[in-house]
Every structure is written in structure tokens, then in C-alpha cells.
Amino acid sequence: MSDYSIEYSELAIPEPGDLTEVATGVYWIRMPVPFHPKHINVYLLQDEKGWYIVDTGIGSQETRDCWQQICDRMMQEKPLIGVIATHLHPDHLGLAGWLCDKYRASFYISQREYLTARALFKGNNREDNWELIQFYHRCGLNEEQMEDFIKNTGSLSKITAPLPISYERLSEAQELIIGGRHWKIIISHGHSPEHACLYCPELNMLLSGDQILPKISPNISVQSLEPNQSPLSEYLISMEKFFDLPEDCLVLPSHGDPFYGLHSRLNQLKQGHHRDLEGLLEACEQPLRAVDTIEVIYKRELKGIQFRLAMGEALAHLNHLWKQGLIRRDYDDEGCYRYQKVSSEP
Known about the structure:
Blueprint: E1 2-3, E2 6-8, E3 20-23, E4 26-32, E5 39-46, E6 51-54, H1 61-74, E7 80-84, H2 90-93, H3 96-103, E8 106-110, H4 111-122, H5 130-139, H6 143-152, E9 168-170, E10 175-178, E11 181-188, E12 195-200, E13 205-209, H7 231-239, E14 250-253, E15 259-260, H8 262-283, H9 294-298, H10 304-323, E16 327-331, E17 337-341
Parallel strand pairs: 6-7, 7-8, 8-9, 13-14
Antiparallel strand pairs: 1-2, 2-15, 3-4, 4-5, 5-6, 10-11, 11-12, 12-13, 16-17
Helix pairs in contact: 5-6, 8-10
């Protein structure tokens, strides 16, 4: 089956709590999540001394039960010795603390991901949410929409077990030797602060996390934590380093099925974002609020978490154009930002 000029592998999709062997010592596991796309792929790597888990699923009892079933089956002779998190989102490290505590395993994650996760999942201890209110007001959200956004701020901590209090830092070009193979760390930005992918040249295999997905683009959002940053610019720059990997490597993503055609998918992702940027630039011939631009990109009605993600992604595209000097950002009479294309006329 082909999609966007990529070819899917013939690997059997594992049921929750089961495993599919990808290569000797490499196993694919699929865990359920309660939001789209309803699953996350996690991976198990075998070493002479024990096992490493790459990403964990959310902190739910259902996921705990799946891991207990897998650990009882696979780790009778060799223990779990390491939990690797590609990044901070709860479907990736939601059970890292639980697994590390239960099995006394080491926790591997990049520094910015770890420190940001510690800050985010601790929650807001202040009564006054004026920064959040100001951020969402400037986007042009109405009171009902702002209330929904603020209500859901911090909700991710509910599906994240307490993080380990120490960790092993993952850094660019670092190599983890697991099972006699070298897994090179590739750091990327945009979807999260310091996302870590793992590439094994001996297997020509990339564990891509959320950075490269076969059917959907990873969410690239501006958050209230850093309202003026340009994560889309960082994401597009980060993508270039993956062109150094072979086109025919097997990509093992966090969502969707394993596939071949890395460069083709990278080009498709880039084209999609540039198409959205061009559409936004055209739409901003007239001054628009950030909330008004969501329909320019998505062209359909969005609700709940989809609307919240779309708001962040619209801001990411607007900030990219703003930082490049292609649009300007001004306040209107209500204190909302209005974005308008910069005229090329003298």
C-alpha cells in the first residue's frame, strides 16, 4: 500500500499488550490512548543485560496492565534497565516514572524535555491566570473558548505519573549501544522543545517519535509558555538533518504504521506547511485575528481538543511569517492581535 510515495512495511500491527518483532532484538508494541489517533507505538530493545523501552504510553490503568503483561512475558530472565522518552508529551512518558520506580530502571531523555516536563506537570500553583487570559484574549477567543482553554490547562498532568527525580541526558550525535548496535540520537525541535529520535545504521532503522509520521503532520504549536516563539521555523530547520539518512531506511513512527520512503515523506511534510503559509499570507491581505485564521488552514469545523491544537498551530504559522517580516502584528481596539501582510509597495 502506498501513500504520499511511501511504502508501508508488511509488519503485523500488534494488539494492545502484544508484540511484533521488527528485527532481532527490536519489538513493536501498540498502546491505546483516549484521543486521536487512538494509539501510540512504543518499542522494546533487547540488550545483553536487559531491556530498554522507547516511550511508554499514557499514565492509565489500562496501559499499566498492558506493560505488566509484556514485562511478565518478556522479562523473566532479563530485567528492564532503561526507559527512553523521545519527548515530554504524556503519551510518550506518561508511565516513565511508574516503570522506572517499579523496575529500578534508568530514565533517558533530553535536558530541555525533562526540565520542561517537570515545570509543566507540576501545574500552576497561582490563583491568578492573567498570562493565560491575556494570551488567549490576544488570539481573539471569546469568553466561552477562553474558559475551555484555561480549564484544560494542566489536564495532561492527570495522565502522567510523577517523573523520575533523576535522568540520563540524551544529546545530539550521542550513541547508545544496545544489543551491540549503535543507536544515534538525532535532536529535533518544533513539535516539542528537544525531541530525540534514534537511528541505528546497522539496521538502517529510525525510531522517529512524533517528528516524522506517515499520514499526519505532528502538531506544531505556539503555547502560552513561550507566546512569541516560532516552533514552525525550528521544525522546518530540524527536518533537513534527516535527509542525511538513507531514503530506504525503515521508519518506526509513534503513530501510524512503519514505512519506507523517508525523504519522500519529509518533502510532503515541508510542502504541506509551505502551502499553509502561502494560504495564510494571502488571507492576511486584510487584518485578521489568530482565531480567524484557523479556518484558512483547516477549512472545517473543529471542536474540543482539535480546536485547541488548531489554535496553537495557526499561531505557529503566523509567528513564522511574522518573524520573517512578511506580516505585521498590531493591536486592535479590543486588545487583540491583528495580523496583516506587509505591503511590498514603496
